[in-house]
Amino acid sequence: MLVKYKFITGIAALAFGAGVISCDDSKSYAELLTDEAHAINLFLADHNVILNLPENDEFITGPDAPYYRLDAEGNVYMQIVNIGDKEMMAKDDELIYFRFTRYNLNNYDPADQNLGEGWGNSDDLSMGSASFRFGNYTLSTSAQWGSGLQMPLYYVGMESEVNLIIRSQYGLSSEISQVIPYVYNVRYFKPGTSDYEIPDDESTDD
Question: How large is the average pLDDT for residues 104-108?
């Protein structure tokens, strides 16, 4: 089902520096969840959304592709910019590296569809690489990123690029209480399959 989200008003604009702040102590958790839902719907109002995943993984891809809802509750939406190498899918407990830039959705301006300033390691190698063990949340080094960033790897291959809308509960474990939704631009790769420089001694194992 292809839908166009309707405009929802009442979003509080929150200023971010590096993309992390504490939550508004004057609001209850339920109110923060409502604000989060409003922020996501406001962004999705400017994009096509498909509520059901396609049969046979026949996704529409590209910079203007729709956002696919990845779970029934709408915690994660995925736009596939580049589906990558489907012959090279992530395997259970496999080390996966990723580069990302994320944007606080509370800063989204629908007037010009501007997400504001992003933050991440996509273009700054000095920030270091980020990685997790696919499907292994027993490791703190994997669990810290939340489950939202891993969900696309059931559908896309290595060297892929996706845009993700991630609710706080599926985002970074250290930020769940802040109840802030983000849009992530993410690229996935395995060691030895990308031009990105990865230190030889880097590992996600505890």
Answer: 96
Name the class of domain 2-6+24-189: alpha beta
Instruction: Tell me the average pLDDT across 28-51.
Output: 96
Global confidence as pTM: 0.83
Buried b / exposed e over 144-181, threshold 16 CB at 10 Å, is ebbbbbbbbbebbbbbbbbbbbbbbbbbbeebeebbbb
Model confidence over 131-146: pLDDT tens digits? Answer: 999 999 999 999 999 9
Cβ atoms of 7 and 42 within 8 Å: the answer is yes
**Complete DSSP assignment for 172-200:** -GGGGGG---EEEEEEEE-TTSSSS---T
Is 186 in contact with 99 (CB distance < 8 Å)? yes
